[in-house]
Amino acid sequence: MSDGDGNLLRYVGLRSATALVLANIIGAGIFTSTGFQAAALGHPGYIFLLWIVGGILALCGALCFAELGAAMPRAGAEYVYLRETYGNAFAFMSAFVSLLAGFSAPIASALKSFIAYAAHFVPALADDPKLFGWISVSDIIAIALCWILILIHTARVRGGLGFNDLITLFKVCGIVGIILSAAAFGSGTAGNLTTVSASFHELSWSGRGAAFGTSLIFVMFCYSGWNASAYMAGEMKDAQRVLPRSLLFGTGLVVLLYLGMNAVYLYGADVDTLAGKVEVGQVAAEALFGGVGVTLVTIVLCVSIFASASAMTIVGPRVYYAFGKDFEPLRFLARVNKKTGAPTPALLLQGVATSVIILLGRIDQIQQYAGFTLSLFASLAVSCVIVLRMRRPNMERPFKALGYPITPILFIAVSAGMMFWAFQGRPLESSLSFATVAAGGIIFYGLVRKQS
Question: Rounded to two decimals, what is the model's pTM?
Answer without folding.
Answer: 0.78
